[in-house]
Amino acid sequence: MFNPFSHQSAGADSLENLAEEVIKQSGLEGLPAGDHKFLKDNLIAQLERRLGQIMAANLGEDGLADYEQLLAEGPTADPAKFEALMNKYSPNYQAKVKAGLDEFIPQMVESLRK
Amino acid sequence: MTGIIENKGHKLDSEKAAELIQQSAEVENVEMPESLEQTAQKKIDDINQTALSQEKIEDQASGGISSPDFSPAAEKIDAQRVAAITVGTENIESVAQGNSPLSAETAKKEPEPKKVTESQLKSDLEAIKDYHNQIKELTSKKRGNYQKDKIIVDQIHTIKGKLEAEFGLDKYSPSFNVMSKAYQENINVIPDEPESGPVATADSLSKMGRQDLENIKIKEGKIQGVEYKELKYARENLQEELSSLVESLVSTKINNDFEGRIEALANKTGLSPEALREICQDQEAAIVAEAKGELSKNSGFWKKAANIGITSSVYIGAGILAGTSIAATLGLGGLAGMSIIGGARIVDRSIREYIGKNKLDKKVAEIKGYKTEADKTALQDRLAAAISLKKTLEIDRVDLKDQEARAKLIDNYIDEQAAAGLSPVQPEELAGYKEKMARILNGLDDIDRLNDQQEQKLNKSGILGKLQKVEKFISGDSAAGRTSTAAVFVGLGFVARQVPIVRQVLAGYAGYRFGAVIGDSILDRKKKGLAENTDGAVTAENYATLRQRLLDQDFQKSKPEEFIKLRQAVAAFEDQQATSADGHKLSELNEQLQDGLLKSQEKSAYKKLKKFAFRAGGAVLGAIGGEALHDVLSHKPTAGGGNMVETANAKGSLKGVSVDDILSRGQKGVIETVRMDEAVADASSSKGSVDVDEMLARSQQSDYVSPENNIPSSDKSHLFEDVVSNKDLKPGQHDSLWRSTEQIFKNHASELGYKGDMSDKTALEHWAQGQTAKTLNNSGDLLDKVYEGNKIIIEQDETGNYRIHVEQGEGLEPGHLEHPVKSGGANLDENMVKGSSKYDAEEIARNLKDRAFDPSGRNPYDINTGLHHDPMAVEAGSADSGTHDLGDELHEMNKTLHGQTDIKSPLYPDPFSFSAEQAVHPVEHPSPHVDHSVSGGKGTESDIKVDKPVEVIPPKNQSLVENLEGSGGGNKTIDSIAALKDMPNGAKIPVGELTLVKQDNRYNFTNAQGETIKMTINKFGGFGQNDRFGIIRDGRILDGKLLSEAIPLKQTIYNNLPDKQSALAKELLEEIAKNKEEVEFLSGF
Fold it and tell me: Which of B439, B510, B757 minimises the CB distance to A92?
């Protein structure tokens, strides 16, 4: 069975770094630790959520069906298999992820700057 | 008897009184059977009584008629006056108004006006009012008996004494307004000083506000069981139910009455059964977490789990209970929290699977088994606390969309915390803290809404329907609605973020891309800001903004001149920062730099290298390193120049800031704050220097124009290049002008304006071919006979159209094909070509056909070359070929060029086809200067392998070479890039153990074994961009992944430079260090 913990620290770090960048760019540095963590956790969740939306939008019907199949194999899809799936159904998903996040990140920052 | 009576402060001599009484008696015909003294005393009593009655009336009148002065210093009233008062010839008011001599005297003794703050005034008036009321109360208690009232009178006098002593009020008025006015006339009221402590009055105010807000919410939300929001109340009144729940929680079997207890709790507290079950689940989860912790303690599992943040997100409910965040405690931003819960459940399930359900269940049972009574009590308290919190949140969440109300709630809560000494920030930071928290919560809601909207869009397209199983799987049976919907996508994102490519994208946002997208956003939305944010200098404050601006690809393309100037100015600032005392931030990166090369260098070199550390690391890592990263992510060459031609190369007029100058100034600490205009002064074109404001303003005026829409440049601009090479082609295939051009369009499709789907290769190819045809057509008198090693450079003219030109590069001199037209093989009637009345499509078509085939059959002519030379003819021919849409026709032609399809038309009965390899002159003679086997190594000369010795071309300017060689200081002469450039082509000089030969603006360093390092000099070099010194192998500059192989070659050159202090040596050394950083940086991707 896929062990998520042997694969994901880098991804998590990147997402955390990204959340930190959002915080920084929003001028929300220097919060008390509890508030900082609250904000970061929420931002990570929303980034993860948007990432999922981008992926879902590009998988197509067959891709989504395959994704469900992947989940039938374990609690989370094996990233390697998921990557193969993305390559199959959305070979240029890297650009799409970038485009999607390029749109979302400024929105996040703007929301927090208001 | 001689007595002194007192009435309202007026002392009366009894003898004089007797006289007055007698006189009075005469008037009133009063019988006086008693002695005068007795009578007088009695009369005095009567007077007193009268006076008291009068006072009472006045008091009741509340400000009507003033009473006599009650001042303790009041003068003794003589009998006459008493009598006058008694008979009404002098009224009391006149006395009260100070018409007495003593009153005037008192006025002279008025204290100097004192300064009283507004707050103090308010406090003083309250005190005066308090004294005033006391006097009124005492007065009302008088019974008209002197003896009996004496105590009261004394008390009144005491209070009056206080009024005078404390407030300078030496006169009493039954009207408080009069008193208040009198007091204020004698003081100077000044504004309050700033509050020394923000929480001085915040406590009471915030409580009032909070209570008001709560009451409104309770009413509007129709919330029941409000009293359970008080923990004490909940604990005391829910004991029975909670105790039962605890028993279930610590048991391996659920209590049969569990649901009944939940129901009872719901009825009592007004919470929903789901909310109550969730509370229990949280506690159950805490036990499970404990079990997981136990099981993972020795496996490092938990540490791994912590790495992905699950410890923070799995039990967000617990996080709320912990109350570490005001937002979490208030239950605000909770919608975002819900999606965390959704995502966390996935992870939670992963953990369960990882550990193994049976093993985990066993551990949970074990833990439950040893729960003590104290544990159970604590658990019961936690349940009560959770219920209390839920009720609080239930109230607070009413109308949370009302940002003003929410801000007030936050303010109140923070004030309360501060008043209780629980604030996480210092008093002086409270205002900023409140503002930030309000922004956070409103912002998170906005972000949540954005994702909601996105999901709604996706839902419309039916995606959620496809993911129902996933939704159920993720959310389980308990979650529903938004939570589970969000959870589906969080789950998908959770998986996606582990995919390496996605990780790369995410990592990219750590720096450049983040800054770029934010910068774009700012510019796109506000069309201003950068210029406003800078005063013309690069400073710590505007550095990030300018850096973002600099990193903007569109800016780079559309305003290359400004881009370069800005980059130099920013770089100079970075240099200054790196060499300043504030370089401590670089310590970590500097340690990494202290390997191999650096250890061998003197301190000065090390200091200079810090600049590159600064650029590559610390706070700037993202910003600058990101440029390289962006290129990695875009599959573009990163360092070493690559095929991204410096945009300013074609300018020629730009003169870069001297690196030596910057270095020397930086070393001396001269550059303190680099003025933009100073920094760019040397770099300015003939237009003169441009300061940052102007530069930015200009850059913003035109906005960004996509390549498709052309660049508003007044000059052509080099964009990309490709080197003609047969490498990696199939046998029989040859590179060509067409192929190289098309390759450029394919490789840089997005940069060159392709808006389509990059994954659609057919569409991309179609586009690239169309662009190639158009570009070749637009390229004027093209050198269409190319050889391996020639460079095909795409550029953009003043109208924005792309065109190419061919440079010799490493190959043979390019030339012109012998076209039939030129050789007379086919002649087009110019009139026809130009669409005159003599237009004859058939003839044009025939001529085109003739052009298409070389008479010899060996050198077929390219239709696209025909397009280039005779576009009108092609257009006319296409119109008569049955395809009236030139675009389609071109496409057909392009496809034909690749041998994919044939043109079939009435005019071309015989299908013809020819491939791209045949379309232009094939490479017949590989360049003798292309070496194919230089391999990387560890930095020693022995690692350099060259299969061909360099062909030294006899210098064209022999005298100069002789001069260089014969100067006795030839090596010293070559001490800078300028000196290298000044070398004439063909010149040869010794450089250490190497021989340098300049050939076609390439610098070939050859050792005694005939091994050659080929080097180019590029105009600019920066981290993640290109190199000043490019090492060439196989006609390609070693960059990107090959950059590591360039380092030892550069070091070999450096080692042979005789003067290590020369500008050339310094610059080369710095670049080596930069390359090392780049290689290290890039190795992570």
Answer: B757
**C-alpha pair distances (Å), B55 with each of B74, B131, B161:** 17, 17, 19
Out of A1, A13, A106, name the one closest to residue B521 (CB).
A106
**Of the segments B573-587, B1023-1037, B1053-1067, which one has the largest average pLDDT value?**
B1053-1067
- Cα separations in angstroms, B347 against B143, B268, B896: 86, 35, 55
Contact A25 B514 (CB under 8 A): yes
Q: Are B1045 and B936 in contact (CB under 8 A)?
A: yes
Residue pair A76/A4 in contact by the 8 Å Cβ criterion: yes
pTM of the model: 0.35
Answer whether residue B646 shows pLDDT above 50.
no
Interval B675-685 mean pLDDT: 26
Closest C-alpha to B785, from B858, B731, B724, B856? B724
| Distance (Å, whole) CA B925 – CA B931 | 14
Count Cβ–Cβ pairs < 8 Å, chain A vs chain B: 293
Task: Give the nearest partner residue to A46 out of B307, B448, B498, using CB atoms.
Answer: B448
pLDDT given at position B68:
34
Say which residue, B64 or B813, is predicted with more confidence. Answer: B813
Q: Are B193 and B117 in contact (CB under 8 A)?
A: yes
What confidence category does residue B361 fall into, taking pLDDT thresholds of 50, 70 and 90? confident
Pairing of strands B988-991, B802-807: unpaired
Within 8 A by CB and 6+ apart from B272, the residues are B266
Please state, in angstroms and rounded to a whole number, the distance separating the CA atoms of residues A97 and A90: 11
Q: What are phi and psi of B1039, to 5 degrees?
A: -145, -175
Report CA B1044 to chain centroid distance, whole Å: 34
A101 contact B CB<8A: yes
Write the DSSP assignment of B748-810 as a string of letters: TTTTTT--S-TT-HHHHHHHHHHHHHHHHHTS-S---B--TT-EEEEEE-TTS-EEEEEE-TT
**Distance to chain B for A41, nearest Cα, Å:** 7
Enumerate residues 6+ apart whose C-beta is below 8 A from B551: B512, B515, B516, B519, B623, B626, B627
Please tell me if residue A23 touches chain B, with a CB cutoff of 8 Å: no
A chain contacts of residue B442, beta-carbon cutoff 8 Å: 111, 114
Asked if B439 and A112 come within 8 Å (Cβ–Cβ), the reply is yes
Query: Which of B330, B404, B505, B755 would you mutate first to test chain A, the one with the most A CBs within 10 A?
Result: B505
Residue with tokens 């060996």: B858
Write out chain A residues lying below 8 Å of B476, CB-based.
none
Beta strands across the sheet bearing B802-807: B717-723, B791-796, B802-807
Q: What percent of chain A has pLDDT over 70?
A: 83
**What pLDDT sits at residue A54?**
92
Q: Which of A25, A75, A86 sits opposite B499 (nearest CB)?
A: A86
